[in-house]
């Protein structure tokens, strides 16, 4: 069968690549084409456009780049029409993918959504579009099942693919000494900085993270270099700061870190699965218009996946105007020096891990998709 998959950012690229590998096991004749990144390409996807060339983050930036977004949608529609797949599989990326879902459904194609867009956080009204244009929704968080049940829309939950990624990561038995030697780092405990995979995130969050360096001289600060970023992207922020950057080793870095400062997103859950205490940071210096829009549309009490899955404050979230130098210094100091605070957070992590279930999610999802397609043909 022919599968057309669309992922719009690094986390989607990761999950889609693992799904594709499992699809090829279930369907040895599978042909896969789509929009994504290097990981999807390595998994055997014929990449039409790389997510680095299409990702647009934030309310204001979407408005500014509306013309580019529309042009990409037109190009994607035409490519789908020409290739005529058996199914279009959409991975998160709601602003783009819901438009593609409507088009694909209109021309008679099967539409699967893998990893629900965060409608429960931003725009519950879009559930109507999901019900109208998506044949099957495959969710990766337990709380999403209840959310969609409220709207009388059945979904398919098979676990969380991040559990797979963490379970299969390399260098799991690596010691701290091995890690710092392999990456040319000094022998000092590490605070990891996960500043996001998009340039806008660096602009609004990384400078505040770097202000912590003088307060914790006994630690070394190490940035997890994102695959979508190059050295020149970090250069304006780190040129006068004693900080290291390690590329392509995020899981190794986080697992060896004493603590982490993490931009809200998938990385918060990855950090929890690796059982490293963290402070969640979100858009500390965003324009006022973005803050107003954020407060207007956000529908949930928490923004991090960690707290949403836990159902309470497992980790501290410093959002918007609360991401200040004093607040961040205080919270980072707390998780580094307060043994009871660290233990409480790690216990919450253990409960989250229990709720997400065992590894094997990617294979389970692939099996459900292939079976559904075969039964419908």
Written overview of the protein:
Helix content is 49%, strand content 16%. About 5% of the residues have low confidence. By secondary structure, the chain is of the alpha/beta class. Helix 5 packs parallel to helix 6. It is built from 18 helices and 13 strands. The protein has a seven-stranded parallel beta sheet with strand order 3-2-1-4-5-6-7, sandwiched between helices. A six-stranded parallel beta sheet has the order 10-9-8-11-12-13, with helices on both faces. The longest helix is centred in the N-terminal third of the chain and has 18 residues. Helix 2 links the parallel strand 2 and strand 3. It comes from Candidatus Odoribacter faecigallinarum. This is Lipid-A-disaccharide synthase. Condensation of UDP-2,3-diacylglucosamine and 2,3-diacylglucosamine-1-phosphate to form lipid A disaccharide, a precursor of lipid A, a phosphorylated glycolipid that anchors the lipopolysaccharide to the outer membrane of the cell.
Mean pLDDT: 90
Distance between the termini: 10 Å
Number of contiguous helices: 18
Which consecutive residue ranges, at least 5 long each, have pLDDT under 50? 56-64, 291-298
Report the radius of gyration as a whole number of Å: 21 Å
Cα shape: globular
Structural class: alpha/beta
Lateral strand order in the biggest sheet: 3-2-1-4-5-6-7
Function: Condensation of UDP-2,3-diacylglucosamine and 2,3-diacylglucosamine-1-phosphate to form lipid A disaccharide, a precursor of lipid A, a phosphorylated glycolipid that anchors the lipopolysaccharide to the outer membrane of the cell.
Catalytic activity: a lipid X + a UDP-2-N,3-O-bis[(3R)-3-hydroxyacyl]-alpha-D-glucosamine = a lipid A disaccharide + UDP + H(+)
EC number: 2.4.1.182
GO molecular function, one term: phospholipid binding
């Amino acid at each position: 069968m022919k599968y057309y998959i669309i992922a719009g950012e690094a986390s989607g690229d990761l999950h889609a690549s693992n799904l594709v590998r499992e699809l090829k096991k279930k369907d040895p004749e599978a042909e896969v084409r789509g929009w994504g990144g290097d990981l999807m390409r390595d998994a055997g996807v014929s990449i039409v456009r790389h997510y680095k060339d299409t990702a647009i983050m934030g309310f204001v930036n979407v408005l500014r780049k509306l013309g580019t977004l529309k042009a990409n949608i037109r190009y994607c529609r035409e490519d789908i029409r020409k290739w005529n797949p058996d199914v279009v599989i959409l991975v998160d990326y709601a602003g783009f993918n819901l438009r593609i879902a409507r088009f694909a459904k209109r021309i008679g194609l099967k539409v699967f959504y893998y990893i629900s867009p965060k409608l429960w956080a931003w725009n519950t009204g879009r559930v109507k579009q999901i019900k109208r244009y998506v044949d099957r929704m495959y969710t990766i968080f337990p709380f999403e099942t209840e959310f969609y049940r409220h709207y009388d829309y059945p979904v398919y939950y098979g676990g969380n693919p991040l559990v797979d990624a963490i379970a299969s990561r390399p260098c799991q038995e690596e010691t701290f000494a091995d890690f710092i030697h392999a990456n040319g780092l000094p022998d000092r405990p590490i605070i990891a900085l996960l500043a996001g995979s998009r340039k806008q995130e660096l602009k609004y969050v990384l400078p505040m993270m770097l202000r912590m360096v003088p307060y914790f001289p006994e630690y070394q600060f190490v940035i997890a270099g994102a695959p979508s970023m190059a050295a020149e992207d970090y250069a304006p922020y780190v040129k006068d700061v004693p900080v290291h950057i390690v590329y392509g080793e995020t899981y190794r870095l986080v697992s060896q870190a004493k603590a982490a400062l993490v931009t809200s997103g998938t990385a918060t859950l990855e950090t929890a699965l690796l059982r490293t205490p963290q402070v969640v940071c979100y858009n500390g210096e965003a324009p006022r218009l973005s803050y107003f829009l954020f407060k207007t549309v956000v529908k949930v009490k928490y923004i991090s996946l960690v707290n949403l899955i836990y159902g309470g404050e497992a980790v501290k979230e410093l959002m918007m105007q609360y991401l200040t130098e004093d607040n961040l210094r205080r919270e980072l100091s707390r998780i580094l020096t307060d043994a009871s605070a660290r233990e409480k957070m790690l216990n919450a992590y253990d409960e989250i891990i229990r709720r997400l279930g065992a590894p094997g999610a990617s294979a389970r999802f692939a099996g459900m998709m292939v079976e559904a397609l075969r039964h419908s043909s």
